[in-house]
Each structure stands twice: as C-alpha cells, then as structure tokens.
Design goal:
about 60% helix, about 375 residues, five-stranded antiparallel sheet, five-stranded parallel sheet, about 15% strand, Beta-Lactamase, Rossmann fold
C-alpha cells in the first residue's frame, strides 16, 4: 500500500484529506514544513500533499527543499491551497510541484489526482531506470554514448525525411530512446499540433507549454527541460539525476530541436508562390540541402565536445587507482607489474579515443570543404 504524507498546519484540513484517502493509502501527518522534512528523512513516502500557507516554512520553500534532496527529489508533490490564481499555480510548478488542487477540496478530484501522480511515479521508476542510476562513471559513459548515438541517428534521419509528421515521429523516438518523456507543441502553417511520448492526464502540461511560449527561450529547470525553437515548444521530463548529464542533455536536445525547427521551416516556408524555372528550383534544393547538412555537422561537432569528458574521466580513474597502490608501505613486484599494466591500458584507451575524435573532426572538415565547392 502506498504511503501519503499530508502536510498542513490546520488539523481540520488534515482530517478532511485523511477521511477521503485513508481507505486506500497509509497516511502520515505533518503540521509544519520542518516536521514534514524530518518525516521524509526517516520514512518511506510515495506522495506528498502539501499546503502552501504555513507559518514556519511555506509550501513553496518545502517543495524546493524536497527537490534539492537527492533521496526525495523525484517524489510526486501535489500542492493544496486556497490560492488558486494562474500565477499561484505557475509558481508552484516552477518550484517543482507535479500537480495543484484548490480548496475547498472535492473528494473525487483529490482521489483522481493522487491516483494519476502515483501511477506516473510508478511508471517512471519501472521504465526509466537509467534516470535514477546514472551515477557511476561507467553509467555516465554509457548514457553519453547513448545520447550521442541517438542524436546522430536523429540528425542523419533529418536529411532524408520530407514530411512534418515523419520528422516529429522521429523526434518522439529520439526522446524515448534517451529514456526521457516529452510533450511537444508545434505550430505549422497556422495550425497547432501536439504530440507526446506517453499519454498524460495532467491537465496543466498544456498550460506550462503555453506559458513557456511567452518567454521565447530554452532553459534547464530542476528535473525538466523547456525548449523554445522557432515553431517548436517542448517540455522534456524524467531526466537522469546526475547534474552534469542534465546539462549535456539540455545542450544536445536544444541543438536537435534547432535542427528540427530549421528543417520544418524550410519545408513550409520555402515553397514558392509561382513555379520557378528548373534551374532556380534545382539551385534552391541544393542550397537548402547544404544548409541542412551544415546544421547536422554543427550538431556532430558539439557531440564530439561531449566526448572530451570521457578522456578526462579515464585520467581521473587512473590517478585514483595509482594512488591506492601507493598507499601501501612499499610496492611488491606484483604490484609494480599491476601499476605498469594499468598505466599502459589507460594510455591505450586515451590514444584510441583521441584518434577517434581526430578522425571524425577530419571528416567534418572535409565535408565542410566539399560544401564550399
């Protein structure tokens, strides 16, 4: 049975919520933000119902602290408050809340939102293990390679796809492949198209995306990525927990969406009003293709920069292991041989990776020179 923590400084409010949910869930109570944080440190909780207006620490601040804690950062949080304006709701989402319920509480609405958030939480933990396990250096390597491979495949597919639906289908496939979820809004030819990686009953996702469109910028916020590129706005969720991975994922996806916006723009904006001559049409097609190839090359160059972390981590691993060997009072012959083998193996790895990067950079330079011909 799932455990729900009810956080509210008013006893009557806690009892009302308890009466609605106690037949289906284990219930814990906290009368203040401080007490709630202490309970989370010593109890397994599956969902938090959090009041906003509390005397010691308000619900917004409690939400921030929960999201900043590595052991509780992904717990579903539903804010409950008499504050019900659009600004209040958006402020709640900005500090990391998953959902929002206005007082007075409607029992059926509370039950539905609790059920939905628990299902989303369960689904995220079952289908997205990488998001919570990319902590070791090996895990970081694996995820970076997955990201680079998925991004390169996507960008290569952009050169071949000539329909918006196919492009967006591949974009959704990319987001799934890197073990994230995405909600995408596209404005094409004065029509709006919404697509997502999974069905969601969260009625506020559209509200978040619409609000994001007003800011006209991309950002990494907490465990979410917001992308704004020309005709595309997207909310990417269920990111890996490692902070450095989040940043690299943000930069990579931003470039993917830039390329997508460029291709979609060319598909819909470059169509001439009157039929051009075959020569002009041929020139436009070639010019368009060159621009698209240049965009892909830029993406590949950026991905290459990500690989520099791999070299750095290899060196750090080597230093750590050498240090452990030298912690002994003296090195035996066997230990000396281990040290030599370790250094040689690491050296070969670094040389191999460096050569791979150099070969790819050479090919990129060659491709750019060919495009200038």
């Amino acid at each position: 049975m799932n455990t729900i923590l009810i956080v509210d400084d008013e006893e009557d409010s806690r009892l009302i919520i308890d009466n609605i949910l106690n037949m289906d869930y284990e219930i814990l109570f906290a009368s203040s933000g401080t007490e709630a944080l202490n309970i989370l440190n010593s109890n397994k909780v599956d969902l938090i119902l959090l009041d906003i207006m509390m005397p010691d620490i308000n619900g917004y601040e409690v939400c921030k602290k929960i999201r900043a804690n590595e052991s509780t950062y992904n717990l579903p949080i539903i804010l409950i408050s008499a504050l019900s304006t659009l600004e209040d709701r958006l402020k709640g989402f900005n500090v990391g809340a998953n959902n929002y319920i206005s007082k007075p509480i409607i029992p059926d609405e509370l039950k539905a939102r609790v059920y939905i958030e628990l299902e989303n939480y369960k689904h995220s933990n079952e289908t997205n293990p990488i998001a919570n396990q990319v902590e070791s250096k090996e895990g970081i390597y694996d995820y970076l390679l997955l990201l680079i491979d998925a991004s390169n495949q996507y960008n290569q597919s952009l050169l071949k796809l000539e329909s918006a639906d196919k492009i967006l289908e591949q974009l959704i496939h990319l987001i799934k492949k890197i073990n994230c979820n995405g909600y995408i809004s596209v404005d094409i030819s004065k029509k709006n198209k919404n697509i997502c990686t999974k069905k969601s009953n969260n009625s506020f996702i559209k509200l978040i995306i619409d609000k994001a469109k007003e800011h006209h910028k991309s950002m990494l916020y907490k465990d979410n990525i917001i992308i704004n590129e020309s005709m595309i706005t997207a909310l990417i969720t269920d990111l890996p927990s490692h902070e450095s991975i989040k940043q690299q994922l943000f930069e990579s996806l931003k470039l993917n969406f830039q390329n997508t916006a460029l291709v979609l723009s060319k598909l819909f904006d470059s169509k001439p009003v009157s039929s051009p001559s075959p020569q002009v049409s041929s020139y436009n097609n070639h010019h368009e293709m060159i621009e698209r190839v240049n965009s892909i090359l830029s993406m590949i160059e950026t991905q290459q920069k990500l690989m520099t972390d791999k070299n750095q981590n290899i060196i750090e691993d080597l230093i750590e292991q050498i240090h452990e060997l030298y912690m002994h009072l003296g090195l035996t012959e066997s230990q000396e041989q281990q040290l030599i083998s370790l250094v040689e193996a690491a050296e070969q790895k670094v040389i191999s990776v460096t050569q791979e990067n150099h070969e790819i950079n050479t090919k990129i330079s060659l491709a750019r020179n060919l495009l200038k011909l």
